[in-house]
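Reviewer 2 asked us to include a model.

Predict the structure of this chain.
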Amino acid sequence: MIKSTNFLKNFLTLTTFATLLFSCSTESSQFVGLVRDQPLDVSKVYLPEETNASPAEPFNTVAANGELLILFFGYTNCPDLCPTTLADIRAAFARIGDDAKRVSVAFVTVDPERDTAQLLTNYVGSFVDRFHVLRTTDFNELQVAKDAFLASSTIQKTSDGKVEVSHTATAYVVDDSGLVVDELPFGVGADGFENDLKILLREIN
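Predicted model (structure tokens):
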């Protein structure tokens, strides 16, 4: 779990690693992210999906058939981790081209009291076209989802009323069977997303 304003050291380390990896090959077969021998199974995770036009409906955190789903825990007031990650995903999609149409993004807010459906939709929609905004005010339901992804988050209010949020800064790539096939930590950049998504999309083909 990373506090949004304390990430520079991890970012530089991961960026250096990613740069070394990409210098070896432009058509890499090696993942930048974490690929577990026993992938996390999130096929039974459901969270309410909210849009501006309709009430929330249960969304199963599984990719559509033959596609991939990138799921990320965050919040719209995040000063650095969330916008940087979403910008990296957007850049990777641009490089992948038409294949990006087989990848969607699910953004799970860890700050539902401040993140309304409209805020979430406008925020994520400013980065990507194919997305789902997931929001629950039931913190037990949110905890079940976080536990399935081995993610965490905290919200604290200071004495002067300031809200401080910390959250896991990992992007989880889920396949159409509900398995987390790749875990991309903050700092891999657009290069990291591009590299791993290309490998996974080739495997689907």
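The first strand starts at residue 2 and ends at 3. The helical segments are 8-22, 81-96, 117-125, 139-148, 189-204. We have added this to the supplementary material.
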